[in-house]
Write a structure and sequence with these properties.
Blueprint lengths: L1 H11 L2 H4 L1 H16 L4 H37 L1 H12 L17
Helix pairs in contact: 4-5
């Protein structure tokens, strides 16, 4: 009785869906597309992350280049080193006074 019921239902299905190889292939395709660890959705996410990381990489390479030039400039001349110390770290000589003016924004 149950076998007849199953045969009737299978007979109503289109011919390609009765083929076990097609069913397995469709299931495998759906599994890879949506549920697998390396699914299509994950691959699209990873491509977006990769693009973002490449952008950050180019930015940081530029920053490294600027900082390397600045370090070379500071190590090459004592006047540049003194200028940097005075401007960035507010250092002063013993006989000087430093006044800092802070402008309040409205």
């Amino acid at each position: 009785m149950i076998q007849n019921f199953i045969k009737e239902k299978l007979a109503k299905l289109p011919r390609p869906l009765r083929n076990k190889y097609v069913v397995v292939l469709v299931f495998f395709g759906l599994w890879l597309t949506f549920f697998d660890k390396h699914s299509l959705y994950k691959q699209i996410q990873l491509q977006g992350t990769l693009a973002e990381l490449k952008t950050k990489q180019s930015f940081f390479k530029g920053e490294i280049k600027k900082d390397s030039e600045k370090a070379l400039e500071l190590s090459s001349d004592d006047k540049n080193l003194e200028k940097f110390a005075r401007e960035e770290h507010l250092m002063k000589r013993d006989d000087e006074d430093v006044f800092i003016f802070v402008v309040k924004k409205k």
